[in-house]
Write a structure and sequence with these properties.
A alpha/beta, B alpha/beta, C alpha/beta, A: alpha/beta, five-stranded parallel sheet, four-stranded antiparallel sheet, 7 helices, C: alpha/beta, 12 strands, lyase (chain A), Phosphonate C-P lyase system protein PhnL (chain A)
Chain lengths: 227, 267, 283
Amino acid sequence: MIDLSNVSKTFTLHNQGSAVIEVLHDVCLRVEPGECVALTGASGAGKSTLMRMIYGNYMAQSGSIVVGGVDLVQAEPREVIRIRREVLGYVSQFLRVVPRVSTLDVVAEPLRMLGQPSRAARARAQELLTGLNIPEPLWALSPTTFSGGEQQRVNIARGFAHPYPAMLLDEPTASLDAANREVVLSLIEQAKARGAAIIGIFHDEAARARVCDRELDVSRFTPARAA
Amino acid sequence: MTPLLSVQGVTKRYGAHIGCADVSFDLYPGEVMGIVGESGSGKSTLLNCLAGHLAPDAGAVVFDTRAPSSHDGNTQQDRGPRDTVTMSEPERRMLSRTDWAFVHQHARDGLRMGVSAGGNVGERLMAVGARNYGDIREKAVDWLGRVEIDTDRIDDRPTTFSGGMQQRLQIARNLVTGPRLVFMDEPTGGLDVSVQARLLDLLRGLVRDMGLSAIIVTHDLAVVRLLADRLMVMKSGHVVESGLTDRVLDDPQHAYTQLLVSSVLQV
Amino acid sequence: MTEYNFAYLDEQTKRMIRRAILKGLAIPGYQVPFASREMPMPYGWGTGGVQVSAAVLTPEDRFKVIDQGADDTTNAVSIRGFFERTAGVATTTHTEEATVIQTRHRIPEVPLREGQILVYQVPIPEPLRFLEPRESETRKMHSLEEYGLMHVKLYEDISRHGHIATSYAYPVRVEARYVMDPSPIPKFDNPKLGDCAAIQLFGAGREQRIYALPPYTQVVSLDFEDHPFDPSKADHPCGLCGATNSYLDEVIVDDAGGRMFVCSDTDYCEARQAQGHRGKDAA
């Protein structure tokens, strides 16, 4: 479902003396449906960078990243957008939304983008928000004013609204209390059960051990840096 | 899939000065593209060349006239992609009243300030042959509602409206004939931040629900991040970088884009 | 008489104006630019109409001038006097006798016949100017038949007044092509513009435009399906001649609010009275 081969990433800082920083070299990774792979490695090893490349957010300098049959390194923007809409979900650590849009609509939006009628999309959003213990009075408000933990749960609800065949999870259980952590982990288990291929970053080791089938140490692909 | 708009080598010079040079891209149905760059980068020149307001010195702007547009009484035949640069002026002006829309930065440039809100919305309908007052009025009421203008204001002139309301009225006036391609020139420029947010939300909803394609020129990177699927960065009349919006903004490759992105104040 | 060329204007100027008139007749409703001359009267007093009349008058013509339907107002009397002096043509107040009729703001009640020419004085020839002040743009709109704007004006009328309140200078479409301002005639007169046996010429002096309707031209007043054109007038008979189908002026007759309605076409009214018709206010 997700297939990376020989993926490399460098950053060229044109405005800082054209410094070239090689971040990842020759990454190969294959994730099958129903499988969950954890990215590990020290902070700065390139876990988030790799995840962003898989999402098409960062450009790979070489190699191929095939998701749902499309190589995102070569694909046109509209192809990447279609894959993101239909195939590849992403729960980031940050919620980025249009101000003024209600929480309910924020969560329902991925389904609306897929052409689902407003009522059905909102019904699914309500179900997720209820499960993640977001109090109903908040649903009509914009999540921009919510606490960090609440925003994170809204983000998760949004990420799980559509049953994506492939998912990227960046610290999905961070800043959650035990009860909500449990809800998120069971959402991940349900996604695996329906056959989703998942790549995640979990600092929460117990969570990682519970949902992940194997680990990939990203520092293996980090080129030795000149000091 | 046929692109809705295929831009091929569009160049516009002002004497020795380059307006825009050799710009090419394809825009597909439902796509929203942002064009960013600083003042004088050629983005507005390019937009005006695409929308038929300026005649480019070279290049083609091919629009797919195939799909029938949604307004009543349109007799457009199955004509396929046509170069709008070389088509006759009446045809181009017909396009700009039916399949195309243009949202100006300053609402006063896109509205008739001496005409009521209802008349402003109804003009495009009447321009394509609507001759039933009751129907025109009904559509105007519907559209004022969709852009969140109190329908009690239908007979008021836009001079009595706030800046945000004027801009929303301009959008209603443009979208009433169900265009397929919308050109926007700094649509949120000059508005208060809170008013901008409301407008952006409205535009996003309309683009999604109507399946519009749009080309948005702006210098505001936040606007393109929210509205545009893809981005083109211009400098001195040339396209220096293009791609998926968040890719260009989060992992800019060209020196100028890196400068542009790093110059934005974080809040 | 000898100090003026026939009908005041020199022959070259008349040729220029006649060319504009012929072009106008060839393209009914189209505004033909012409090099308007200074006339010995102020703009707004009918300089356009006078130049057109001067260009079409021949020594054999019989000339009539009406202002708001009347032959005896200052403007009508002075223009009639002008051509009596400069062209020596015969004049008349009778519509049937006249071969050239210059008019401001009315069409005579009596149907015109072949061989007659009706010359309108036009203040603003551009019907689209109300909404689009740029002449470059209105010319383009005419050339491309983009007339949606004209209906916006009527829409505004209905939205503000509940009906089309435009009661004079009511826009018309000529032969399904050009939208034309019929000059500030009451909309009551609009139906007489179409299928008219006489030649109708329109002259705008200050604006330097001439346009024309050849005989039997199709002229349609613009409207909406659900607000059709209505050539209404005051709902009274004429107080002097009793006519029920003529356009009326309201006249205040005393300081106590007394008023009467009389035909604005004085010749028509007098002719009816001579035939023995009497209204309720007739002496």
